[in-house]
Amino acid sequence: MFLVGYILWFQRAQRKREELCKSVINHVQHQQDPRLVTGKTERIIQGRQRDNGHWFSQVQPFHIHVYSAFFDSRRTLRSQPQVAVIAVIDRRLLQQPHLWCHVWYSSVDEAVVLRAYLMPIGSGKLMTDGIELVEHVIACRVNTDSCVPVSVALAWGTSVSEMTWFRVPIELAQNTTSQQSLAVCVSASFGHIDARQLIEWLEMQQILGAQLVVIYNHSVSQSVGHILSHYAHSRADLSRPQVELRQTRAYMSNDVLLHMSPVINDCMYRFSAQFKYFAVIDLDEVIVPRHVYSIPALIESLSFSNAFPVALFVFRNAYFFLDIPVDDLQRPLHPNAALSTYLVHRRRLTASPPAYSVKSVVNAQACVAMHNHYCWTYAADVLSYWTLRVDVAPSDALLHHYKRCHLDAYLQQSGHCKYVMAATVVDNVIDKYSKPLAERLHMKCVTFNVTCV
After folding, report:
1. What is the torsional sign of CA 168, 120, 361, 192?
2. Phi then psi for 263, rounded to 5 degrees?
3. How many other CB atoms are found less than 10 A from the CB of residue 193?
4. Of 191, 90, 166, which Cα lies nearest the Cα of 134?
5. Which fold has domain 50-172?
6. 153-212 pLDDT, tens per residue?
7. How many CB atoms lie within 10 A of CB 108?
8. pTM (predicted TM-score)
9. How far apart are CA 382 and CA 420, in angstroms?
10. Distance between CA atoms of 11 and 270, rounded to whole angstroms?
11. Of 1.10.600, 3.90.550, 3.40.50, 3.30.200, which CATH number belongs to 180-448?
């Protein structure tokens, strides 16, 4: 009896969704709007891609800055897709009774009003004008995935008429005929970046098995921008890591820290249909497997021992401080090894505690709100049927973190760097990559005329 009742309920719900979709299609056809395409296999929509890196912003009566919005119909959402709005919003909005999405299925001025659900992706920042801004993914659940909405605005308060003066185009995950294994999402890049270390990092991602690296430029130097542009325009050369270079332009002064998690979520939503996993790391970090050669092979081996799909693999942080002396180490044998930061700086501290400065590899189907360290909110089905998190043992892999020691300033404790750098151990696991890495670095230093030592 229960099964019969469920089937009848499902059939009624399906008819209701089809009627809604047909009414939207008929209205759009009457208006001769070509931008709505129905069906999961036909979501190629003209005119939906907005300017790369442009924020939609307003400051009155509240600060609302929207980077992008996506139609999310991943299978882990239990057949209730959502519009995901990636935004930085005024903390005062969190005190409003309700937040809403106005969703348009065509260019005509008739919107569907949906309840909004806030998912924080950062801790926020107090700006110089006294306004506190907080990073969010704002989710609005739609009734059907047969019709794809074209734009969205945010509204607040008891009246749904108080809303942003702008509409944000709703984009779709970029699709391909075959799904690849691993992409790398990097938070907003800014300030001084060492050109040689950037080249080594990009080459190392390809060696470790990443098929795509997505970098968002906030304010890098012209020389670094030239290197990134060269990689981004050389996608036909399979000997290089494939690089997608995107922009994230400032909307306020000193706002760069508020770009970090939003662009990671843009990366995740934009490429979720193309890749099985995303590594979320910075330009001074490398996930290094201890017993296998590539990150996809590592993920496969870690997944094999779990009875359920794994949503998140978390990697312990190990500092390879660049100010640790290296003269007493056995030098790598490859003639071009001196070009490498990774092959020369081979001393690490004991791995940091499990909760400290970790970074992650996340399943593309699992996360709906990603912080720049790990997932903060999972999709509906993931909570019920998945293993949410695997803390990867240091014996299996570590996050190698290459930077000068910052602990004196961070802990406000003079002499801490000297103390911890005296307690190091030799770690040569990265030597297995020395030949391809050194050869790639030599070639790229010549190509870009970068000082090699």
Report:
1. positive
2. -70, -30
3. 18
4. 90
5. Immunoglobulin-like (2.60.40)
6. 999 988 778 999 999 999 998 887 788 999 999 999 998 999 999 999 999 999 999 999
7. 12
8. 0.87
9. 40
10. 32
11. 3.90.550
